[in-house]
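Structure tokens please, single chain.
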Amino acid sequence: MEANAQNMEMDDDMLITYLLGEASAEQAVRVEQWLTQDVANRLRLQQFSTIWETSKTMQFAEPLDAQASLLSLKQKAIERQTQQARVVRMKRNYAWLSAAAAFLLICTAGLLFFVRFANRQMEVSTVETITTDTLSDGSVITLNKRSQLNYPATFTGNERRVVLQHGEAFFKISPNKAKPFIISTNNTTIRVVGTSFNVKNKNGNVEVIVETGVVQVSRNGNMVTLKPGERVLAKTNAPLAKEQNPDQLYNYYRSKEFIADNTPLRRVVEVLNEAYAAHIIVSRKELNSLLLNTTFKDESLDDILQVISHTFKISVEKKGNQIILK
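Here you go.
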């Protein structure tokens, strides 16, 4: 029994699956039993873990052909086994060949990890929280509540492409002229090299606001170029409409501030409804154009409404899930 345990083989794919937490219950039991059989087995798993961490930093100028790479790996594995058989018969002064074989093993296993998992799709979804995530290229994404972003674990090829399925996100893109960053959302494409901007996909419309750099936005064959302080609204069956961004309220979920600078009450209410998932209604049309000048920071909705009520001498009435300004 002991001899059989020592001779039990464990293939590389099984170890990779186990390391990534994707093994079935039966596979996990098999690997864990294998680990208990020999210290060398545990060392091998640790080496694979180290190789995986190292392979994350590998860069490739061109997209990898996964099938060709795997065939190459199999051939190298056969060559490695031949080398190992020959090492047994070699004299001590040829021991450096063992080191070469070990180096080949590390490179081969690292490439195996990269080929298999570089294009693995990741997903970040939020419900009632705001999340900040750093992508493999160093770009930083801040995702607003009730939003979803999909992206590859590692960017390969000649572009960096992500998908904003719904919601809103602020992108601070790491510069790379050779590999533009592309965002797809609701039939709209946003293309940048290195810049910062906000994207909102809501109710079938896409809004892009640029803070730094230059951004290209295209939809249905139309394209506009945005500079800092500009925004575009992409609506279904309508031309792209570029204009100056009128306020800084879009940034509330990152800055934790509501900055109103001669901002119409209509716009303030729109943002408060979004931020607090509220249902505020302005009962009189003439109130919509009232201009507010103030900054709210980390304040409750009730406190904000109290300030608005006092400023404009209007009342706030709560009726069911509605809040009525009149």
